[in-house]
Protein backbone atom coordinates (compact mmCIF):
# COMPACT_ATOMS: atom_id res chain seq x y z
CA UNK A 1 0.00 0.00 0.00
CA UNK A 2 2.98 2.32 0.10
CA UNK A 3 2.93 2.29 -3.69
CA UNK A 4 -0.75 3.31 -3.71
CA UNK A 5 -1.24 6.81 -5.14
CA UNK A 6 -1.99 10.16 -3.59
CA UNK A 7 -4.48 11.47 -4.50
CA UNK A 8 -6.25 8.13 -4.20
CA UNK A 9 -7.35 5.97 -7.11
CA UNK A 10 -10.62 4.11 -7.60
CA UNK A 11 -10.54 0.67 -9.19
CA UNK A 12 -13.03 -2.10 -9.86
CA UNK A 13 -12.71 -5.19 -7.70
CA UNK A 14 -13.80 -8.64 -8.83
CA UNK A 15 -13.84 -11.03 -5.90
CA UNK A 16 -15.97 -12.26 -3.05
CA UNK A 17 -16.92 -9.80 -0.29
CA UNK A 18 -19.22 -10.46 2.66
CA UNK A 19 -20.34 -8.44 5.67
CA UNK A 20 -21.82 -10.09 8.77
CA UNK A 21 -23.78 -8.48 11.60
CA UNK A 22 -26.04 -9.90 14.28
CA UNK A 23 -25.26 -13.48 13.31
CA UNK A 24 -26.24 -13.09 9.65
CA UNK A 25 -24.70 -12.16 6.33
CA UNK A 26 -26.06 -8.69 5.58
CA UNK A 27 -24.16 -8.11 2.32
CA UNK A 28 -22.56 -10.34 -0.25
CA UNK A 29 -21.16 -9.50 -3.67
CA UNK A 30 -18.73 -10.58 -6.36
CA UNK A 31 -18.32 -7.04 -7.70
CA UNK A 32 -17.26 -3.92 -5.89
CA UNK A 33 -14.80 -1.03 -6.03
CA UNK A 34 -11.87 -0.19 -3.85
CA UNK A 35 -10.17 3.09 -3.11
CA UNK A 36 -6.38 2.89 -2.95
CA UNK A 37 -4.46 5.64 -1.15
CA UNK A 38 -0.91 5.89 0.13
CA UNK A 39 -0.54 4.64 3.75
CA UNK A 40 -4.07 3.16 3.81
CA UNK A 41 -5.34 -0.36 3.26
CA UNK A 42 -8.09 -0.44 0.60
CA UNK A 43 -11.57 0.81 1.40
CA UNK A 44 -14.16 -1.35 -0.34
CA UNK A 45 -17.42 0.06 -1.73
CA UNK A 46 -20.21 -2.46 -2.27
CA UNK A 47 -23.25 -2.02 -4.54
CA UNK A 48 -26.22 -0.93 -2.45
CA UNK A 49 -28.34 -3.73 -3.87
CA UNK A 50 -26.06 -6.41 -2.39
CA UNK A 51 -27.28 -5.55 1.12
CA UNK A 52 -30.20 -7.48 2.59
CA UNK A 53 -33.55 -5.70 2.63
CA UNK A 54 -33.98 -3.37 5.59
CA UNK A 55 -30.33 -3.48 6.67
CA UNK A 56 -29.43 0.07 5.55
CA UNK A 57 -31.12 2.73 7.67
CA UNK A 58 -30.19 6.37 6.88
CA UNK A 59 -28.38 7.98 9.82
CA UNK A 60 -27.96 11.62 10.70
CA UNK A 61 -24.88 13.65 9.89
CA UNK A 62 -22.39 13.82 7.08
CA UNK A 63 -18.67 14.28 6.54
CA UNK A 64 -16.44 15.68 3.85
CA UNK A 65 -13.62 13.95 1.99
CA UNK A 66 -11.24 16.17 0.06
CA UNK A 67 -11.13 13.55 -2.72
CA UNK A 68 -14.64 12.09 -2.90
CA UNK A 69 -16.92 14.86 -1.60
CA UNK A 70 -19.77 14.68 0.91
CA UNK A 71 -20.53 11.37 2.61
CA UNK A 72 -23.88 10.29 4.03
CA UNK A 73 -24.17 7.59 6.69
CA UNK A 74 -26.18 4.46 7.41
CA UNK A 75 -26.89 2.50 10.54
CA UNK A 76 -26.63 -1.20 9.74
CA UNK A 77 -29.62 -2.95 11.31
CA UNK A 78 -30.53 -6.58 11.99
CA UNK A 79 -33.12 -8.01 14.41
CA UNK A 80 -30.25 -8.76 16.81
CA UNK A 81 -28.21 -5.53 16.69
CA UNK A 82 -27.68 -2.02 15.33
CA UNK A 83 -24.26 -0.80 14.18
CA UNK A 84 -24.60 2.97 14.34
CA UNK A 85 -23.12 4.90 11.39
CA UNK A 86 -21.24 1.77 10.29
CA UNK A 87 -21.87 2.38 6.59
CA UNK A 88 -21.38 5.39 4.37
CA UNK A 89 -21.98 6.43 0.80
CA UNK A 90 -21.28 9.26 -1.60
CA UNK A 91 -24.52 10.09 -3.40
CA UNK A 92 -22.87 12.71 -5.62
CA UNK A 93 -19.11 12.05 -5.53
CA UNK A 94 -16.50 14.07 -7.37
CA UNK A 95 -16.00 13.11 -11.05
CA UNK A 96 -13.02 10.81 -10.39
CA UNK A 97 -15.16 8.72 -8.05
CA UNK A 98 -18.47 8.83 -9.95
CA UNK A 99 -18.58 5.02 -10.22
CA UNK A 100 -19.17 4.66 -6.46
CA UNK A 101 -22.23 6.94 -6.37
CA UNK A 102 -24.66 5.12 -4.07
CA UNK A 103 -22.23 2.30 -3.26
CA UNK A 104 -21.74 1.61 0.46
CA UNK A 105 -18.53 1.21 2.44
CA UNK A 106 -18.56 -0.51 5.83
CA UNK A 107 -16.49 0.20 8.93
CA UNK A 108 -15.22 -3.31 9.63
CA UNK A 109 -14.61 -2.56 13.32
CA UNK A 110 -18.34 -1.94 13.86
CA UNK A 111 -19.69 -5.20 12.43
CA UNK A 112 -19.13 -8.83 13.37
CA UNK A 113 -17.03 -9.80 10.36
CA UNK A 114 -16.05 -8.73 6.86
CA UNK A 115 -14.32 -10.99 4.35
CA UNK A 116 -12.48 -10.52 1.07
CA UNK A 117 -12.09 -13.69 -0.98
CA UNK A 118 -12.90 -15.72 2.15
CA UNK A 119 -10.29 -14.06 4.37
CA UNK A 120 -11.51 -12.22 7.48
CA UNK A 121 -10.30 -8.63 7.32
CA UNK A 122 -8.65 -6.67 10.10
CA UNK A 123 -10.04 -3.14 10.49
CA UNK A 124 -7.69 -0.25 9.80
CA UNK A 125 -6.49 1.00 13.21
CA UNK A 126 -7.74 4.13 14.90
CA UNK A 127 -11.47 4.00 14.27
CA UNK A 128 -11.51 6.90 11.77
CA UNK A 129 -10.51 5.38 8.43
CA UNK A 130 -12.43 2.54 6.82
CA UNK A 131 -9.67 0.42 5.29
CA UNK A 132 -9.72 -3.37 5.34
CA UNK A 133 -6.43 -5.16 6.02
CA UNK A 134 -5.83 -8.57 4.46
CA UNK A 135 -2.75 -10.79 4.38
CA UNK A 136 -1.69 -9.48 0.97
CA UNK A 137 -1.53 -5.82 2.12
CA UNK A 138 1.68 -4.65 3.86
CA UNK A 139 1.73 -1.84 6.47
CA UNK A 140 2.32 0.17 8.51
CA UNK A 141 -1.06 1.82 8.15
CA UNK A 142 -2.23 5.32 8.96
CA UNK A 143 -4.71 5.50 11.82
CA UNK A 144 -2.76 4.13 14.77
CA UNK A 145 -1.16 6.26 17.48
CA UNK A 146 1.41 8.72 16.11
CA UNK A 147 0.38 8.30 12.46
CA UNK A 148 -1.72 11.43 11.93
CA UNK A 149 1.24 13.41 10.59
CA UNK A 150 2.15 10.92 7.86
Can you put this structure into words, describing what you see?
The protein is mainly beta and 150 residues long. It has one domain: Domain of unknown function (DUF427) (Metal Binding Protein, Guanine Nucleotide Exchange Factor, Chain A), CATH 2.170.150. The protein has no helices and 11 strands. The chain has strands spanning 9-21, 24-36, 43-46, 56-65, 69-77, 82-89, 104-106, 113-116, 119-120, 122-123, 132-133. The strands form 2 sheets. It has a 9-stranded antiparallel β-sheet with strand order 4-5-6-7-3-2-1-8-9, with no helix packed on it. A two-stranded antiparallel sheet has the order 10-11. A hairpin with an 8-residue loop joins strand 10 (122-123) and strand 11 (132-133). The model has no long low-confidence stretch (mean pLDDT 92). This is DUF427 domain-containing protein. InterPro entries: DUF427, DUF427_sf. It comes from Mycolicibacterium poriferae. Residues 17-108 form the DUF427 domain.
